[in-house]
Amino acid sequence: MKLWNYIILAFLSLNINHAVAQQEVALDQVAVIVNDGVILQSDIKTAMKTLKINAKKEGQTLPSNSVLEEQVTEKLILDTIQQQQADRIGVKVDDGRLNEAIEEIAKNNQQTIAELKEELQKEGLNYALFRDQVRKEISVSEARNAIVRRRINILPSEVDHLASLLSQESSATVQYKIGHIQLRVEDGDDKAQIKQQAMDIVSELEKGADFKTMAYTFSKGPKALKGGDWGWMRKEEMPTIFADEIKMQNKGSIIGPFMSGSGFHILKIEDVKGLQTVAVTEVNARHILIKPSIILSDEGVKKELIEITKRIKSGEVTFSQMAKQYSQDTGSGTQGGELGFHTSDIYVPEFKHQLDTLPIGQISAPFKTVHGWHIVEVTGRKQVDRTDASLKNKAYRIIFNRKFNEEAGAWLQEIRAGAFVEMIGDDV
């Protein structure tokens, strides 16, 4: 976002310090009462001044002063009400977060903080006031997000439906190399027995049996003497029963058994062209957590974990035994410290760093997080296909954004309609 666009957002917020406008008005007066707050004449004048500065820089023509004043006043009323909502639910923005936001504004404008201050000063805008308004914008945004989120309800069926549509769009040009085994069911055949045979074949395939050999041996399908090979096809070129079962699976996937009017079918995705897959690394780890206390200092905890590590490495005890005895992570401690397979980004940064960098089987040195002191051992890593989950996440984000914008607009209308607003005089 450009600096001046952000300044518009900032200076159109609640209770602008009227000291900035003291040179413009001899006597500041209340222009609007909004619930238990007020908007001053200087607030409106300062906001209009900022808009005009921005418009001049952008070469933008503005409407008449009377129209502009009406628009600005309404924006200030809405901002005031939203700030009151933020205050009501106790949103606070500390200096650290504020500094990060202002650094980001400067960075986006290819400026240093010093250059940002200088530019504000040239335009007659106070840096301290700018900080205050950025803080308020952040708090208003957080309040709006928190309140509107609670109004949004997304059904799993909505996500699945949109994910399916996204999948169809993505798979329009995807080609699959298909292997097929068909077990025919004739009149009088024992369907349950043939289904069990199909399930046994799938079990063997999943254990590594050669698909073509199994097709030559068992298949009664049209490609049986080609080892079940249907070659490369797009979904629209496949038999409907194939296309209905293939849903963005990856190379090597076994599908089935599923039934049609002619019997039971098993498919294998021998290869795929044009499919954008999403793979993530999941890490299996175990840890021991000890928290400092009044009795046990950080240094004491660190020494204790070092001693535990020595005992584990010597073979005197196992990691599991020590976790059950010492770990203060109630979730994993009783499980011998086991955390299971997860992506590392679910953990706090210090813990994530250890999971991403430790060799398998090596116990870390003691390290500290917000939870306390840890030692951790990575016991395994694996690549997991998350293409389907990625599509569902994308679908969820699209639906959420749509509903958020709708609900945010409805919420603003509701709080505006429910607020006490009184204009003081016509000459502002």
From TrEMBL:
Subcellular location: Periplasm
GO cellular component, as recorded: outer membrane-bounded periplasmic space
Gene Ontology BP annotations: Gram-negative-bacterium-type cell outer membrane assembly; protein folding; protein stabilization
Gene3D superfamilies registered for this protein in UniProt: 3.10.50.40, Porin chaperone SurA, peptide-binding domain
UniProt keyword Coiled coil present: yes
Pfam families (alphabetical): Rotamase, SurA_N
Coiled coil stretches, renumbered: 99-133
Top class in the EC scheme: isomerase
Reactions accelerated catalytically: [protein]-peptidylproline (omega=180) = [protein]-peptidylproline (omega=0)
EC number: 5.2.1.8
Protein keywords: Chaperone, Coiled coil, Isomerase, Periplasm, Repeat, Rotamase, Signal
GO molecular function: peptide binding; peptidyl-prolyl cis-trans isomerase activity; unfolded protein binding
Signal peptide: 1-21
Domain PpiC: 173-271, 280-380
Domain of life: Bacteria
Predominant place of localization: periplasm
Described function: Chaperone involved in the correct folding and assembly of outer membrane proteins. Recognizes specific patterns of aromatic residues and the orientation of their side chains, which are found more frequently in integral outer membrane proteins. May act in both early periplasmic and late outer membrane-associated steps of protein maturation.
Domain notes: The PPIase activity resides only in the second parvulin domain. The N-terminal region and the C-terminal tail are necessary and sufficient for the chaperone activity of SurA. The PPIase activity is dispensable for SurA to function as a chaperone. The N-terminal region and the C-terminal tail are also required for porin recognition.
Protein's name according to its UniProt entry: Chaperone SurA
Higher taxonomy: Bacteria, Pseudomonadati, Pseudomonadota, Gammaproteobacteria, Vibrionales
